[in-house]
Specification:
mainly alpha; 40% helix
Length: 58
Amino acid sequence: MTNMSDYGLSRAGLTHGLSPRSTNPDEIGHVAVYLASEDSIFVNETVIVAVGGWIAGF
């Protein structure tokens, strides 16, 4: 990546210390299985963000 904002990078770095770890593929798989199940019958027209809290600070 080029032409990145130093201010933006410093702001983004503030919340990265709060996230304990990265998401693993099994956890993403759980989201996919849920969406394919009958339990998600009323889930529609939405975006499910499975990032383990990485965007919570923004």
